[in-house]
Amino acid sequence: MNRVRCLVLNAALGPLDYRVPEGMAVEAGSVVACPLGPRTVIGIVWEAERLPGTDVPAEKLRPLREILPVPPLPAPLRRLIEWTADYYVAPLAAVTRMALSSGGALKGPATMVEYRLTGGMPERMTPQRQTAMEALENEQATIRELAGIAGVSEGVLRGLVNQGVLEPVEVDCDRPYHQARPDFARVDLNPEQAEAAEVFAAAVRRREFAPFLLDGVTGSGKTETYFEPVAEAIRAGRQVLVLLPEIALTEAFLGRFEARFGAKPVLWHSSLKSTERRRAWRSIAAGEAQVVVGARSALFLPFPGLGLIVIDEAHEVSFKQDDGVRYNARDVAVMRARFEGVPVILASATPALESLAMAENGTYAKIDLPSRYGAAELPAIRTIDLTEEKPGRGAWLAGPLVTALEDRLDRGEQSLLFLNRRGYAPLTLCRNCGFRFQCPNCSAWLVEHRFSRRLACHHCGHETAPPETCPECGEPDCLVACGPGVERIADEVAERLPDARTFVATSDTLNSPGRAAEFVALVEGGAVDIIIGTQLVTKGFHFPELTLVGVVDADLGLEGGDLRAAERTYQQIAQVAGRAGRGDKPGEVLLQTRHPEAPVIAALAQGDRDGFYEAETEARRFAGAPPFGRWAAIIVSSEEESEAREAANRIGRARPAQDELAIYGPAPAPLSLLRNRYRYRLLINARRSAQLQDTIREWLGALDHPAGVRVAVDIDPYSFV
Ligand SMILES: [Zn+2]
Ligand SMILES: [Zn+2]
Fold first, then answer.
1. Which chain residues have CB less than 5 Å from ligand 1, an ion?
2. Residue 556 has pLDDT above 90, yes or no
3. Residue 478 CA, ligand 1 centroid: distance in Å
4. Angle formed by the axes of helices 143-150 and 154-162, to 10°?
5. pLDDT of residue 477 exceeding 90
6. pTM summary value
7. Taking each helix axis from N to C terminus, what angle separates 92-99 and 75-87, rounded to the nearest 10 degrees?
8. What pLDDT is recorded for position 219?
């Protein structure tokens, strides 16, 4: 063929046709450099019949510049990109960009220079050189990266290079990873695990699409179970993708993986260095990376030989992306498995209601692990009624919880206090005039962070130092904290249990895999008595000496208008409760609540999971909510309030009249100002039979807005702010 259709990486442009110059051999999926005006853009050669065409005559076509030195994007991935763009009403180019997520990888093979210590000493030792040399033991990286690791300037390190203390090493950017060995260490599986593992392994051998819901209680050994089909895929020379919801969880996972397979898997997440990113991408595209563990963005990597996909903690909300292409990695992963023709395992102790419904109607095969591994038993759960057991003024921990903490401290066991609120206090106000500190960019309160002495917005990242005087009335030292965050709970613990060694575990303190590893080592080494943490510590961690979990505010998740609030509360508390009693010693869970009679709290206390899911299912059926109906949101934003409002009204007036759709709004979004943009929302509730996406595309496609207006579509939304 000498005419090809290319999808170019520019969301404003449709597909473009090009001429293939003499001697260039392209195929569908080839990654190419395309001329566009005076510039060159990256494009993917696509099957012409699958994209709307242009009628540019052949003699006017411009020639492709070159084929980039990477394998063509595989056909199943191209189908996934099409499906994702179609389902989530997103531009094809924006979805394709997620597959080409390493600019460096597209440049082809390369070497780079890294530096490492030689063992020599500088002529003159300075404190900074001393610091650097101690920090860089066993490190090898670029000067810039080493400077980051050592916390010194690049100049200090260049000085050490001149002195021969650091030496350059030429490194192949694409050097291979260590090979995982499927039979490195066999584990003893109990009969339930062994049976499940064999079902999965057989599915890997059959090489056909097979979705599984692995429903196992916390501590039942789900990871060890799905490691068996992973081993089976490695034996067959196929690739495996394991999706985890948080980077903070990967460190614990890597340890378990290495113990089982004798090598670490290939990592993929947003904070990889660009060199690691290109190495991982190229290794995956070449079919060499065997097992890739990653965050949701790993879903669009160009595996040529996938044999299995695993989604761990598959119920987690963080699989939903809420900006750019708004997709749910759990659902897209199942589609990728379908296009690839491979099994996919959704593992969870608290499956999403939608996943359970798929198992119920037979779409997913459900595999249960109903008991904990070894001698461990599920913890006993009790509620503490805060309307009766009132903590004192300015305190948040009720008497029975403090007593239980003291008890563990005496016995040398560990406890976990859970409160899903970062910082010291969620709201700060002036005692004198009542002034509330608000983010200048968002309609949100600033959260006081006392450790780092700042007021921060959790939506846009705006930060400011706490002022000496009230900006409104000028009164000095007048700021009062309202409500608790984890830092305030840490203060209370320090006051009431002064001997306890505490660790505040949040995304502020566990913000890198390294920090997470330190945390795990401290807890495992017995250097921490009480962990005080947010949702980050609710899952994945396995601490055998941890026997008490205290939920500071079990009602917190039920506030706000989220459609899934009850389900999320149930999942979060069941998960955090699952951290207790994972070793030989029995666990206990105490839930502080003002509503012990609320159905979700009562179900948790009685261990009545089925009862909770049944009640929740009925509530969803009544509301026409997923899985019985569908939701979609349209979010209109602009830096001009009037522009956003008018655009939202224009969309509202053009609403389609269909029996199968109920359309609410437009109304100001609950978060009506976000990052300096004013926001309006429309919410659509659709019957399952409705052609939801086509309707939205037609509806919005017929309208024009000023350049400053952004219209985003969120299919199957999780966030209603
Ligand atoms: Zn004031
Ligand atoms: Zn803000």
1. 430, 432-433, 435, 470, 472-473
2. no
3. 7
4. 120
5. no
6. 0.88
7. 140
8. 83
